[in-house]
Amino acid sequence: MKFIVLVILMMTGIFSVAQEKDPVVHPKKDSTPVVTKKNIFNKYDSATNAHPPKAAAFRSAVLPGWGQAYNKKYWKIPIVYAALGITGFIFFDNLKTYKEYKFAYAARFKAEQQPPARDSTDYHQLKEIYKLISPESIRTARNRFRQYVDYSALFFILFWGLNVVDATVDAHLKSFDVSPDLSLQIKPGHSEMAGTNGISLVLHIK
């Protein structure tokens, strides 16, 4: 009988030791969600590349009005082409007048230096008004229209650049919340610091 009890005690001790040596480990659950690279890139694409401003800027730089169409601001396209069309017309008109004054001055200057040159073809092609005024007056008008050509070219480039800027800014604003909830509202409120009730100015931002 004592032998049986001793065997039972030994088996119990061995089982206890085995339990201590090989405990059951329960995996801990991580409450933090795992964010994969794919999720990061998907979030980045949906947040930033849904309506990228670079795409609108590139389109407007290549073809004026294309960026406005990309932003669905179609009413701005006639304004863009009106500004570029007017400045473009002024540029070519000034350039034509400048070339006319330049030719007239060259013909008059040559005729003044060499009187037989009045029988040349260039002199006969001049308009009568250029034959009556002095070469110095023609030269002054030529220089003035040369400046007009530079100014009109500068304004044309400026309006082209403004077309790109406008499309880029509109594309940036696509990502902003412009809903009616984004506003200042006057609401009754409680001040915990002062311990009083009153009226508060609340700004809703999403």
Structural class by sheet pairing and helices: mainly alpha
| Overall pLDDT | 75
Major beta sheet, strand line-up: 1-2
- Helix tally? 8
Spatial separation of the terminal alpha carbons: 81 Å
Q: How many strand segments?
A: 2
Specify Rg, calculated over alpha carbons: 42 Å
Order of helices and strands: HHHHHHHHEE
| Share of helical residues | 55-70%
Strand content: 5-15%
- Unreliable spans are 1-25, 30-48
The major pleated sheet works out as: 2 strands, antiparallel
Name the overall outline. Answer: elongated
Report on the structure:
The protein is mainly alpha-helical and 206 residues long. It has a domain at 55-172. Helix content is 64%, strand content 8%. It has helices at 2-21, 37-48, 53-62, 66-70, 77-113, 121-124, 128-132, 135-173; strands spanning 184-191, 196-203. A two-stranded antiparallel ribbon has the order 1-2. Strand 1 (184-191) and strand 2 form a beta hairpin. Helix 5 runs antiparallel to helix 8. The longest helix has 39 residues, at 135-173. The radius of gyration is 42 Å and the shape is elongated. Residues 1-25 and 30-48 have low confidence and may be disordered.
